[in-house]
Fold each of these.
Amino acid sequence: MYDTLQPELLTASETEKALMERDPTYVVSWDIFKDNQLPYLELRRPFILGLHEEDIWRPTIYHAFSKLLFDKQKLLRSYTQNIDGLDYKLSVPPQSIISCHGSLATIACEGCGAPMETNTFTNLIKTQIKDIYKTDPSAPASSTPINCPSCSKPLVKPSTVLYGRNLPAEFHENAQSDASAANLLIVAGTSLTVYPAASLPELAGGILSETTRLVVDRDKAAGYRASIDIKNNPKDIMLEGDCDSVFLDLIEEAGWLEDLTQYKDSLCESSKRLLDGRLLYLEAKGKN
């Protein structure tokens, strides 16, 4: 996204465009947003609408696994570095999810903190924010600010963390106690190089800890980061492979496939195909 950013398409001053030209991440920085929310909203427009209104972005089997853990009262907390909001789409309660870098799933004023109802915000995005990607013919030709109904300032946005702003307090308030209380810490699809999320395995302890640390990743090197040592620590386990495939295997081994099928229609197409293939295989195997 940032590598292909075209500042000239955004509603910004020449100074702001020069900053974004030099460092594309400025488009999601507090330095720009506090004076001009429009570049951020124009950049995020299709993702906001795709998540909340058009239902383009859907959860995966991994997200369904988290939901099954919650359903079975086995989920202490889900920590995510992703801002896509998919963790919330299967109705895992917000108090069971900590979005380390914020989330597109919730909307609030960056100034006063007042929340805005999602449908209200998406309607304003559709009618007040131009489409720099030229995929929505109904979008306005130019953008106008979206003001907060509480403080009247144009600082409303999805609750993602801007560069230059603090991470959510919930992480620091819960990380140590959650890591200490967990019997099993699952690390899925992350390089374990971005902090503070990468500190969770360290907080859960090393070779003397009672916590089992399970790493699911395509890259075996993930089994040797953030104090994890799958070679020398018997409580560190690596399952190498694609997250959806590995978690589907775990769901099958746990005897939860039937439980998973209730969420099938909510899953993205690739996850649906994977689940359908597994069910067909098991059906054919049972007939032989």
Note: The mean pLDDT is 93.
Amino acid sequence: FSLTELSRLRCLVGDHVGALEALAPLTLPPRGDGSELVEQCALCHANTLYHAGVCYLMLRRFEDASSVLCDLVALVARLLKPGTAVLRQSTASQVHKLSEKALSLLAIAVALVPGKAAGRARQMVAERHADRLRRLEQGDVGCFEDVFEMACPKFVTAGAVDYSTGVNVGQDAFRAQVQTFMDDVKQHLGFGALRAYMRLYTSIDLSTAPPGGAGPAAAGASAAAGPGGAVVPPMATQLLAFKHKLT
């Protein structure tokens, strides 16, 4: 319990690496066989998966985020299955809210890196939020911000508040985390066309590709200057940036 709460606290103050390090002694996601103590408390189990999913999302580990959030949605579906009264009403309500937030975060992960998201992740989101997923995949920046603000935890500041100033800074930490995530989202959305070309060229034989390249490399207007005056083609620059975002 102390490890899960420490992880939750670090997530809320924006220390996402530290939050995952606190969960290192645990198996995440749990194997589902009851071997982990966290599985014996449904609300603790759901909270742990939710905050771990947020941390993975903020660290651009979208595949891990999809896996953890999918497990959370599946867990809640089992707990709230009609005919299985295993939770009190108050606990069931809190777990259901976490599941709804997890679905929203899952939609973001699927929209940002489709190739990294498991098939069941897209299916889970499409069943409940098909219209929202469509807007996210079309690159609607406003939709990304609205969904993230609704689904993310209420981040707090790690320092003591100086009440003598009379300035309300209660939302500063929350807005800073949202802005950080949105800056990363805007960079990812710029790789949409590149990702489409990569899917195209992995589905055709190189022998059938036009000589000289007719894709984004050939469409580059100007080359960038690399170290030592070496010329770096625009396509190579984009690929390097894209690789950086996925690692």
Note: The radius of gyration is 21 Å.
Amino acid sequence: MHGVPTSPPPEKLVKAYRVIPGITTSTEDFPHHGTCFNKLLGSSCKSPPKMNYWTLHGLWPNNGDSCNNSWPFNVTEIQSLLPDMHTFWPDVAHPNGTKFWKHEWVKHGTCAVVDESVNSEFKYFSKALELYKKLDLTSVLMKYNIKPSPSYYRMSDIRNAITSTFGVHAKIQCIPPSEEQSAQILGQIEICFNQEYGLTDCVHEKSTEGSSPYFNKLQFFGIYQKLNTGLMVCDEQLDTYYPPLNELHK
């Protein structure tokens, strides 16, 4: 019997992010979900398989991370889920491995298990896939004609598409523009749930002096440090680039 943390059931957070050609999940600091754009950021990365849909980053509770180091990841527990895992929750840096899933389980799954509905490795990954499919973020954006394009989008249009569909406010993150660029790059979207898995607004921590009120300790990544940039809450005033596949493969 694995020890289970005894904190109250956590709020739920589904993180979805788009894996597209020209992006790979490999950096020294965050080897499973770092990002590198070949063309857009001038870095040399091996492009992942062609994917024209948003993929799953993880199901993150808000009650901390790495709650039970005595509960290791065991891929045999999710054997029946592997076809969906490889399709919707891929690790493009290690396509034949399980490092990304192990990371998500150890850091977030072991904290989520205080909730009976996700109190095992199988239940945790299964619930995340269930919510991912229910949201169907790719189709939601396509419905509002928001798709990979050489043209820029207004952030308000992307935000309104999500709010109009789900009735809640998501957290949308972008890669900010470099000195040579004028547009931010759409990178990650977070959609939140309450304890009953009902949709709820993604609220942000109160700001502290010198910091943005939108940063949350679970969502602010250092995964682009090698490129002197990082995922940030998208700027409402900047044009937003949703890169087309052919542009990223040039």
Note: The mean pLDDT is 74.
